[in-house]
Amino acid sequence: AVAAGRCAARIPAAGGGRGGPRPAAAPANCVLAAAARPRGGGAARGSVRGATANSSAAWLVQFYSSWCGHCIGYAPTWRALAGDVRDWAAAIRVAALDCAEEENHEVCRAYDIHFYPTFRYFKAFTKDFTTGENFKGPDRELQTVRRTMIDFLQNHTDGDRPPACPPLDPARPSDVLSLLDSRDGRYVAVLFENNSSYVGREVILDLLPYENIVVKRVLNGDKGFLEKFGVSSIPSCYLIYPNGTRGLINVGKPLRSFFSSYLKSLPDVRKKMLSLPEKPNKEENPEIVVWREFDRSKLYAADLESGLHYVLRVELAAHKSLAGAELRTLKDFVTVLAKLLPGRAPVRKLLETLQEWLANLPLDRIPYNAVLDLVNNKMRISGIFLVNHIKWVGCQGSRPEFRGYTCSLWKLFHTLTVEAGTHPEALDGTGLEADPQAVLQTIRRYVHTFFGCKECSEHFEEMAKESMDSVKTADQAILWLWKKHNLVNSRLAGHLSEDPKFPKVPWPTPDLCPACHEEIKGLHSWNEDQVLLFLKRHYGGDNLVDTYAADQGDTGEGGGPPQGREPERGLASPEKPRGDQRAESLRPPRALPPGPRLSDGSQLGLDGRLQSPSGAEGRREVEAAVPFLGMGFSSLDMSLCVVLYVASSLFLMVMYFFFRVRSKRWKVRHHRPSV
Ligand SMILES: Cc1cc2nc3c(=O)[nH]c(=O)nc-3n(C[C@H](O)[C@H](O)[C@H](O)COP(=O)(O)OP(=O)(O)OC[C@H]3O[C@@H](n4cnc5c(N)ncnc54)[C@H](O)[C@@H]3O)c2cc1C
């Protein structure tokens, strides 16, 4: 972090989140303390809002993700930009927010961030909530971004322009001539340049925090005017000293940095004291990363579940509502997951419930909150559960910005293709059973539609277009994904996002699968039959271990161990292979005991609301229906029922005794012998 007073800021995370991807790749270089350090996801939104709302400076915010290789690759450029424009802070500031941090999920959702990195501009003095203006430049090179920052500043109206930002438009020749005679004790620098040049504006902004100097720019339209100042080439800088002497300055090269540094080093030109936010105490957000020992030859349920959590609660949740192709993609992806993903029974039951619900949805648009309610098990259906935080094991990186989500996504995808190859009957009745490409095509559509790394999805789509059609069997699908993953590995070898502890090499490495590797005439070649066998073993349910997953689910909404969860599953010993458990929990889903259905009432409550009206009104009703899902009985409700039950029993007993005593007295009174 860089000292306060610089203009780049990392929007603070809300509270000290643990376990999620961490922002060590934070491309920005200082922490903004102006925004209160919030607690809870909602407050994180407050931090972006708090920073940008009614701010006297404009903002450029990069919403990035610490698992996104392109963001990691871009981090040095962003850091350089932050340093390069730090003197512009009073007019425009740069900041970054890591959407992979759990505590920022909600804010990124509120700001409608679907892909990383996303750049948004926020004008100064914005009052109402705004998601900002997108910057989708043709390139994101430092110079391009710097220039768009200037364009953005010039887009302000006079009324909302940052007060510290001097006029960036060119001065009129008459105004410049009048400057020649002014004596206000300051230097006046006049930059002559052409219409398309940004040098003048950059120098004006560079000198923003300096006192005793004013910088103006003027265009080279009138030749006679230029001659008056002796300007023979542009850009040139004419300097009027406080004592009235003046002339063109001689800098080594007519570049922004030369002009700026010359002017900053003039006698009596000093930096003003800027009251920018204090640097917060590092102790406030300690990042404790605990390394979990793991075996590279195993597949960890914790990785698959954490990846699934991210898919369902973060990546998909970036879409407020889903319709058309997006909704179809979600339905097919959930179907494939529900039918094929091995793992702990509560997770599979959750997926089955979700799949069933989505399959029966009559609407062509749904608010994603409805899906979230089910994923979070707001209805308290017994036996369904998905961990609501991230815990990487086989996908841990040696530094927090490495690996994580994308690693788990690959593992999920490979597991799905392998399971489709080894349990083809699992897809029976879904409409996907007859097509050997079905799982691959579903993965392709997920990546294309929802994967937050846009560049990754474009590369993947290119590979799919090129050869996915050649896949004719389920085994070929397994091998297709393996080959393409290796292509990605070789493309990324040596990239900034490569974890040195997990180098990108052709996989499986000889130590994992010696039989997969051969040499033909001295050249390495793959034995694809062996590779296929290896993949089926490696990504098969028998290789899935619960280590580190066993303690998941002890916190949060819908996170408590579900009532129907088998105790032996939760207590699985470390590294215990799932072979025997699979016999029960990993058998093809069709053979499972009927999954927990939404109780008829709640099914009706949900579907009934989603069925009836259509169009905007229908959607409104659906939105309104969402809280209904949260009306499951909580433990408080249950306690109240018990208290009422006991109270009414007591009341009945009291009434009973009261009338008994009365009737006895009555009998005694009427049978008393008269004297
Ligand atoms: C669909 C997709 C496309 C991507 N495209 C890009 C991109 O264009 N640019 C970019 O920067 N990043 C991209 N990524 C991310 C990148 O591939 C890695 O996921 C990331 O760099 C983390 O790497 P990792 O070391 O965890 O290993 P990963 O490549 O994520 O692999 C995860 C695990 O899978 C196993 N594995 C490795 N290779 C194979 C294989 N060939 N077959 C089966 N299993 C294997 C290993 O156990 C490995 O640890 C993409 C990710 C996905 C899911």
Automatic annotation (TrEMBL):
<keyword id="KW-0285">Flavoprotein</keyword>
<keyword id="KW-0732">Signal</keyword>
<dbReference type="InterPro" id="IPR041269">
    <property type="entry name" value="QSOX_Trx1"/>
</dbReference>
<dbReference type="Pfam" id="PF04777">
    <property type="entry name" value="Evr1_Alr"/>
</dbReference>
<keyword id="KW-0812">Transmembrane</keyword>
<dbReference type="InterPro" id="IPR036774">
    <property type="entry name" value="ERV/ALR_sulphydryl_oxid_sf"/>
</dbReference>
<feature type="compositionally biased region" description="Basic and acidic residues">
    <location>
        <begin position="565"/>
        <end position="587"/>
    </location>
</feature>
<dbReference type="InterPro" id="IPR013766">
    <property type="entry name" value="Thioredoxin_domain"/>
</dbReference>
<keyword id="KW-1015">Disulfide bond</keyword>
<dbReference type="InterPro" id="IPR042568">
    <property type="entry name" value="QSOX_FAD-bd_sf"/>
</dbReference>
<dbReference type="GO" id="GO:0005615">
    <property type="term" value="C:extracellular space"/>
</dbReference>
<dbReference type="InterPro" id="IPR040986">
    <property type="entry name" value="QSOX_FAD-bd_dom"/>
</dbReference>
<dbReference type="Pfam" id="PF00085">
    <property type="entry name" value="Thioredoxin"/>
</dbReference>
<feature type="domain" description="ERV/ALR sulfhydryl oxidase">
    <location>
        <begin position="398"/>
        <end position="507"/>
    </location>
</feature>
<keyword id="KW-0274">FAD</keyword>
<comment type="similarity">
    <text>Belongs to the quiescin-sulfhydryl oxidase (QSOX) family.</text>
</comment>
<feature type="region of interest" description="Disordered">
    <location>
        <begin position="546"/>
        <end position="618"/>
    </location>
</feature>
<dbReference type="InterPro" id="IPR036249">
    <property type="entry name" value="Thioredoxin-like_sf"/>
</dbReference>
<protein>
    <recommendedName>
        <fullName>Sulfhydryl oxidase</fullName>
        <ecNumber>1.8.3.2</ecNumber>
    </recommendedName>
</protein>
<keyword id="KW-1133">Transmembrane helix</keyword>
<dbReference type="GO" id="GO:0016971">
    <property type="term" value="F:flavin-dependent sulfhydryl oxidase activity"/>
</dbReference>
<dbReference type="GO" id="GO:0005654">
    <property type="term" value="C:nucleoplasm"/>
</dbReference>
<dbReference type="GO" id="GO:0003756">
    <property type="term" value="F:protein disulfide isomerase activity"/>
</dbReference>
<dbReference type="InterPro" id="IPR039798">
    <property type="entry name" value="Sulfhydryl_oxidase"/>
</dbReference>
<feature type="domain" description="Thioredoxin">
    <location>
        <begin position="20"/>
        <end position="155"/>
    </location>
</feature>
<keyword id="KW-0560">Oxidoreductase</keyword>
<dbReference type="InterPro" id="IPR017905">
    <property type="entry name" value="ERV/ALR_sulphydryl_oxidase"/>
</dbReference>
<keyword id="KW-0472">Membrane</keyword>
<comment type="function">
    <text>Catalyzes the oxidation of sulfhydryl groups in peptide and protein thiols to disulfides with the reduction of oxygen to hydrogen peroxide.</text>
</comment>
<dbReference type="GO" id="GO:0000139">
    <property type="term" value="C:Golgi membrane"/>
</dbReference>
<dbReference type="Pfam" id="PF18108">
    <property type="entry name" value="QSOX_Trx1"/>
</dbReference>
<feature type="transmembrane region" description="Helical">
    <location>
        <begin position="642"/>
        <end position="659"/>
    </location>
</feature>
<dbReference type="Pfam" id="PF18371">
    <property type="entry name" value="FAD_SOX"/>
</dbReference>
<dbReference type="GO" id="GO:0006457">
    <property type="term" value="P:protein folding"/>
</dbReference>
<keyword id="KW-0325">Glycoprotein</keyword>
